[in-house]
Write a structure and sequence with these properties.
Elements: H1 2-8, E1 22-30, E2 33-41, E3 45-54, E4 61-67, E5 73-78, E6 85-94, E7 103-109, E8 115-122
Length: about 130
């Protein structure tokens, strides 16, 4: 069945809406804490996958925003707070417009939700800057 579905070019429920069109990497580091990983742009979604490191002396949260080409926000989500070392985190974003998101912002937030580092990746970029 899976072979038939793949051969027909159909997408299974719960799967990304297309093969990854573009991938960018990000590295947001502040002192000994960081959020680093990759941003995968799909047809109508974005996946931000990375490792978030927080410490008891500096809890951290990761966040991401998906925007269309005009800058309109399509989705925004954040991770839970991390205070005890490095943990894997994924932020799935919806970008339900033709072609999906054009720009993604990734943020490293302090314990109070203030942005302490950020970067932007435009679809087609190799790095989030």
């Amino acid at each position: 069945m899976a072979t038939l579905v793949a051969a027909a070019g159909l997408t299974l429920t719960g799967a990304p809406s297309a093969a990854a069109a573009d991938r960018a990497s990000f590295d947001l580091t502040v002192g000994a804490t960081y959020f680093r990983g990759t941003i995968d742009f799909y047809n109508r979604s974005v996946s931000v996958d990375g490792v978030l490191r927080g410490l008891t002396t500096g809890c951290r949260r990761g966040a991401a925003w998906a925007n269309d080409a005009s800058g309109k926000v399509l989705d925004h989500r954040s991770t839970s707070l991390v205070c005890n070392g490095a943990v894997s985190r994924q932020i799935p974003l919806t970008a339900d417009v033709p072609g999906g998101a054009a720009i993604v912002e990734v943020d490293l937030l302090d314990a109070d939700g203030h942005i302490i580092a950020f970067c932007f990746a435009v679809r087609g970029d190799e790095y989030c800057e």
